[in-house]
Structure formats: C-alpha cells, structure tokens
Fold each of these.
Amino acid sequence: MVDKKTYDLLIIDDEQVIIDAIARIAGGEGFTVDSSLSAINALKQIENVNYKLIITDIMMPEMDGFQFLEELEKRRISVPVILTTGFSTVEMAVKSLLKGAIGYIPKPFTAEEILSVIYRGMEYRRIEKELKNNLFGKKNSSIIYVPCPPKYYRLGHNSWINIDNEGLVFVGATDLYLKTIKSLKKIELMKFEENIMQGSVCAKFETEESLIHHLLAPLSGMIVEPNYKLIDEPLLIEKDPYFRGWLYRILPSNLEAELKNLSSCSSDRI
C-alpha cells in the first residue's frame, strides 16, 4: 500500500483570494496547505490525501459547508473542521457548532484570528488522536480529558451551561476547549449587567504566545455575576472548569428556545 500524502490544512472556498490569504498566513507559520474551490472536489481529494485540519466556507454552490460536514460524517471521515463565512450571523455560528464544526470564524478575519483557530484546531486533532490511540491500546495518553457533568449542556465542545435552583444559569468553557488553547495567560470578561447572546463572543483568552481565542456564548441573557476571581487567577479555570472556574451567572432571556441548540453533556466525548 502506498502511503497517502499528508497536509496540515485543507482550505475549501469558492474564492481563490480567500484561499490565498489563509494559505499565506498559515504558510508563514510553517503549516503545509492544500486547497479546493469546491466541497465536492475536496471530498475527492480527501480520498487520496490525509489532512490534519479543514477550513471551509459555508456559502458555496453545489455543496455548502453544512452539507460537507454531513458528508464527512456519512463517510466516517474524522477530520476537525472549522467553518467560515462572509454572511455571518449568530445563528450561523450556533448552527456550525451544533452540526459538528470545532470552530467558527466570520469573514473578514485578521491574521491573528485565523491563526488562533488553526492552532486550536491542530491541538484538537492531536488530543483526539491521542485519546483514540489510548482507547484502542496503541499508546498510553498523557492527556486527562474531563467531560462536563451529565446535567450540563454545551454549545459544541466550546462552552457549557448549568441551570441552578434559582433559575439562573452558570456559563463556562469546556475542559476540551481549554486544552486546545494551551498556555493560558489572561482572561477578558464582560461586565455586570451586560448582555451576552448565544453564538456571540462572551470571553477572550490570551495565551503566552499572544494568541487571542474567542469563546462563543452558549446562551443569551444578562450577566448578574462575573467570576472576577479569574482575572487575578486565570489558571483556576483550567484547574476546575466546571465548578469554581465558571465565567458568569446569567439571567437567561430565551432559555427554552435556545436549549434546542445545545447538546446534553451526557454525550460529551470526543
């Protein structure tokens, strides 16, 4: 059997200028890049080439990004996917994570924004591979991955909620998301009585490498209590992400409807 060629990234977009921009940014960091102008052609390429991470546009002719995700699932092709679009809405962001993308980035994006999702995607792929090898006894993994508690709900593998007895909701970042950003240095939180919206950025994480990672809110509502302990002690969120490391307590504004966009954490496994 001939070994397949391997690339770090496959970029799928019907605009060559977007492909060229991402390829230039990723190539400058040493990543190897392949590309396709359509999702249908990309599926053919995947048959013959190994990719560590895929970045694909959503709005494309013939097959869009969501249909591409569904096709990967049907074919049991396990490659982390990041979705991007120039027709950005919070609904689009929520749907992207709900459909299985590990990240979402709106156009236009900066070099820093695209690099942050690439590095997070690469780390996700590494974690996924290690855990699967450990599961099948091929390798003992050093990664301790803590799924969120069964009674919680999550937006993709990014953020979680826990509804308390008073009808308020705790919001936080999943352990898997935190492991993909690595070397956390600083957390930027929103303020008391500010409103967060499901699918919009609710917190920013800065790493030792000066990358900024955006966390998308799992639910809409007004912040009644930010966890200011995280400002002085950001590593608390890594030590205890589901309890003492929560980000906010919020008064939800559309709980019943928005719960339909979340997954039960009882299935929180890679």
Note: Residues 32 and 251 are 45 Å apart (CA to CA).
Amino acid sequence: MTWVSLVWRNLLRRPARTALTTAGVSLGVGLIVALLSLSAGVERTAGELIHVGRSDFGVFQSDVSDFSRSLLPESMAKRIATVSGVAETARLKLFATDVRGQSSFFVFGLRPDEFVWRRLVLIQGRRPRGSEALLGDRGARRLGLGLGDELAVAQGKRFPIVGIYHSGNVFEDSGAVLPLGVLERLANRPGEITTVAVALRPGLRARTVAARVEHRFPGTVAVYEPGQAIKVDTSSRLIVDTGWIISLLALIVGGIGVTNTMAMSVVERVREIGILRAVGWRAWRIAMLIVGEAIAISLLALGIGLGLGVLAARQFSEHTSTSGLVQPDFTAGVFAWGLAFALAVAVLGAAYPTWRAVRLTPVEALRRE
C-alpha cells in the first residue's frame, strides 16, 4: 500500500467528519483569497487612476467610499499649482455609467488645455469640438464602436465619437473622454471634479511634494503609490481591516477543527499505531502519517476554498457600491497566501495529535482496547 493510499484510506474512515473539517478550512481559504484579491484590485486600480496622463500623483478627497466619489472644487487645481515643486496640474472628472450593456464604463472629463488631454495620442479621427467624444482603443474594442458611432451614456445622452485615442494607461484607454464642462453637467455636479492630476518639476520626489499638498489642503489625500489607496477608499479599508480579523479567527477555528479531527483519529487508532510501532515504524514515520492526513484535508480545502474565494470576490465587486472601480486581481501571490493559510491550518491542527501519537509506546498502545 502506498503512502498516499494509506492517508486517503484513513481519511475515509470517518467521511462525514473529514467533510465537515474540510468545509470549515475551505471557508477560511476562500475568505483569504477574496480579501487579498480585492485588496490587490484596489491597488491596481489606484495605480492606474493616480497616473492618468502619466501624472506623478493624484489629489483626492479623503475618506470617501471609493475613488469615484471624491469631490473637489475645480478651483483647487490652480491653488495646487502654486505649491512648491508642482509643474502642472490637470482637472479630471470620473463618471461611471452603463454603455451597451457594459456596467461601470468610465467616462473621463478633461480640459483640452491641460496636460492629461494633451498627452492623449490620437490614432484615428480628429480632436472633438463641443459635445463630441473620444473613445479609448481598448474601450472601442470592448464596446464594438468606432468613428461615426455614438456613445450613449446616462439619461439617454448621445455623443458622436470623432476620435480613437491611446494613452498607455489601461484604465484610461478602456474608457472615453468628454470635455470637462459637458461631463460636469451630465453628472449634475457643475464646478466639481474627482481628482487633480499633478506633474512635478524634474528631480523632485513625489512623496515630498505630496506631503506639501496634504499639509496645505487639509481633507485631501495626495496618492503617489498604489499602496496608499486605502487612505482614500474607506470601503477597501473596511474590507481589509475586517477581513484580516476574520481571517485570523478562521485560522484559529480551522486549526481547532483539524486538531479535533486528528486527535479523534489518533484515539480511534491507538492499537493500529501500536502495531505499526511494533513492526518497526519509527516515531517520525508515525508523525509524518498524522501530519500527512492533516495536510491532505487542507489541500482538499484549498481546492474548494480557491473556488469559493474567486466566486465571493466577483460577487462582491459586481453587487456593491464600488462603482466598478474595485475589480478582484487574482495574482499568484493571492493564491500563494491561500496555500500558506491551508498549510498553516494543517501544521497547527496536527501539532497536538502528532505529539500524542509519538508518545505512545508499542506496549502501552497494544494494551488499550
């Protein structure tokens, strides 16, 4: 009998207990995967948004539910431009809408005389005049639209598409651009923008100038790296803080569940362990058998938990008020953390049963009924 078949046979002795333990651990794995994928998604989106137009950082209203709900007065752009180290500023309005069945399609409101607009590379068509739209090359492929078509947005408004642009920013290239004033009227927020994009003077560090801006304008956050996204996005902050607490509890509960399962397994197999010791099995082989069974449970839970985590993260992003900005990012690191969680549960859960099993002497084990 192979080692794997021996482990599998032992787990199937009490299939209901094994299944319940696996289910408990899989919930913890799923939570870790969902939490980290959403957190990674927030950072990815933040990295794209704060560098729209290849800006060095973006200034947002602090403590909003997500980036798109930041509201700053247009006049702040000129005031930020006076801060030492700032070379240029650009006003940007972000508006989420449904376009051709695509939920949370983003339209950017820009001013033609500012650097974010000037850095758009027009690959087809011409610059817009009045209430005309530009469409990003990725957005054009996503929607199946092109020159001469109309961009239908909220309230039945339609804007002729007169140009296709490329900026090099995935977030920006997946949306569309309208003149800032047009988009402000469309959003019923005249004079209010989402963020101020900032370009620095050569040789200066974004961290230094961002700190000056935050000091000068209380209630704002100057985001210069994706990891700072949590300072703006309170929904993401709540997800991360609550998620880590629940994950810690899940680790403890999962460890207790595996401990109980393996301890009961050792109690039920005392005589079998005694026979194995009597025929020459060393203590380390007994320990490896118990640990192997715990790892097998955790690996089963890992497979189920990864699926649950992916599903939960997608459901959260599609059915919450994050305006489509928070999309889960399933990186290798996210799945590695899921694996680490599962293995940690296995090691914690197997510790006490393994210690108990290796302390049994053959004579003592064989005396028990």
Note: The chain has a mean pLDDT of 82.
Amino acid sequence: MENINRTQLFRAACLSLLVTSLSFGIRAGILNKLGTDFQLDKAQLGSITATAFWGFPLAVVFGGIIVDLIGMKRLLVLAFVFHLAGILLTVFAQGYWTLFLSTLLIGLANGTVEAACNPLVTSLYPDNKTTKLNHFHLWFPGGIVIGTLIVLLFNKINIGWQVQVGVMLIPTLIYGYLFSRLNFPVTERVASGVSTAGMYKALWNPLFIFMFICMFGTAITELFTGQWIDVLLKNVTDNAILILTLDTGVMVIGRGFAKPVLKRFPPQVVLLMSTILASVGIYMLSTVSGPAIYAAAIIFGMGVCYFWPTMLGFVNENLPKTGALGLNLMGGAGMFAVSLYMIVMGAHYDNILKQANGDNTIAGREILQTTLVIPLVLIVAFGGLVVYMRSKNKTQPIVNPVV
C-alpha cells in the first residue's frame, strides 16, 4: 500500500469511532435530564434515542453501497459534516423536534463512520481482520466510559448537559483534520477484483442470512441495555450510570485482549460463550440489588464485549466476497433492530409504570427480563453455528486465517 500510512489511518479511524461512542455515552448519561428539562415522557425519550439507531442503518447501508464507488475518504468527510451539525443542534436544542433532528444527524454520522471504517480496517489489515476489528471497536465502549465519566464529573460540579455534549466537538474537529490530509487505499473487494455481481450473489449465502438475523439479537442485547441502563436501574441504585461505565470498561479490556482469545477459540465459540455470559448478566441485573449489581455489570460486559466486532469479523473471514456491503449490512441490521426495539420498549415501559402506579424499579426490571429472552434464543442459534462450522471444517480443509 504505497503512500498509505496505515498506523495514522487506523488511529484516525479509532478517533472517529470515539466520537460515535461519546454520543452514546453522553446521551445515556443525560437522558433523564433531557426528559425533565423538556418535559418528555419515556415514549418520547425512546423515540429520540431510537432515531440515532435508525439514522445509523440508513447511513451504513447506503454507505456500504457507494463506498466502493466514491471511496472511503469522501464518506468520512460526510461523517464529519453530520457529526458537526448534529452536535451543534443538540447543544442549542429547544425541544422534542430539535432533539429528534440532532439525534438523527448524529445517527447518520455514526453510520457513515462505520460504513467507511469497517472496510478501511479490513483493507489495512487483510491478514489480521478479526483482531484489528476488535481493537478498532474497543473505542466504542471506550468512548462510552469516557462519556459517562464526563457526565458524572460535570454533574458533580454543576456543569450543564449542553457543555457535556459540546465536548464532542474536540475529537470531531481532530479526526476531520486527520482524514483530510491522509491517503486512503481502495476497499478490499475492489483490490481483489471481486465483481459487484459476485458481491451481491454472496449476500444470498444462507450463512450470511443466518448471521444477519443473529445480528438483530446481539445488537439489541448489547446496545439497548447499555443505552437505557440509567433509566432502567435508576431506582435500583444511586449510581446507575456507573454500571454502564463498569460494563463498558470490561468491554474495553476484553477487546484489547482479543488476539489471545481468538487464538484460543474460533469466533463462533467466542460468540456462544459471550451469549451465555450476557444472559447471566442481564438476569442478574434484573434480579439482584446492592453490591451484587456491580458483579452483574461485569458479567454482562464480559458477555457483550466481543459481539459486534466478532460478528463482523466472522462474516468477513468466512464470506469475504460480501465485501464492504456485507460488513455494513450487518451493522445496519443491528442498529435498525435496536431502533425498533427502543420504540417498543419505551412505550411498554410507560404502560408498566401506569399499571405499577409509577414504580420505576418494577418497570426497569420487567424490561430487562423481557430482553433476556433474546440472548437465550441466541444460545441455541450460536450452539448450532458451532456444530455447523465443526462439520464444515471436517469436510472442507481450510487454512486457518490469522486473527
């Protein structure tokens, strides 16, 4: 890759993902405050939060279609513009609709970052895809940790949520500058000569369709629970946002050590073990109280830490002809599922509150117990995947990729 500074491009990609995750962490921390300041009920908060999750799939799928044509650099310039506009509009929000629009713009920005950066990472590290995707995606929980700590600190010293959101301008301006001056490679599919028709044909592979559907569940398990943790557990503990900080901190560490884990276990086994731990974590979050809730957060973080990057890595390693579009359809599927789930659960939360005479503790725990069904189903699905991949490897000798 002549004239390509792989290290600087990877660092800039991580910084752009940091902005994406800061938007999740800070918004999760200020969600209750937004509801109070603008007199929004949980259904409205659910709709606003969900906007980021369906703005994301719109951008990531459209970006996946055009990234091979216009290049990753142009997509990331567009992401910068969306991030800048969304952050500023949030800071100066006046009510429901300005919050809705600003969240949509940030969702579009976040999706555009993923649309460009996932294929960028696999193009920069073709022999080390799954590990580098995990290293790249550790900045998502990393940014959530930073974002929630910003919320905690600024709340402690009585600095308003507008300033907390404005902090995101700093890394946004830096990554916009870095990407503007760096040269980019072409996507891996273009470099390998796989035709557009071949890419679309690969998307109909039953294994891709299976992973696409499973992405609904892994994304909801990880992102819905994380984004709503402050609301769901507000009346269970005085430090609900610290639970989010704790479980995302575990995710950062787990993704940082992805290489030895993936050397010991194949991706499908990692996904199965992750789903079991995530199920235990959600069950504990919905039932325990006191110090045990922090143990539940750690177990939940261990469960979800490998979900997103390992799902992408598995698809790109086993179905490489799906290319950038395959990666981005996976991401889009996950975020779209989360957006719908948030809307439904926001309304369901309000209904539970009415029936329970405003008892937030009952409502939060019931939502978590409903969500627990999803990883329980995934245990069966990924158990089947493990069996399938073992039989496939016995009948079709393959060279194990470097992960």
Note: The radius of gyration is 20 Å.
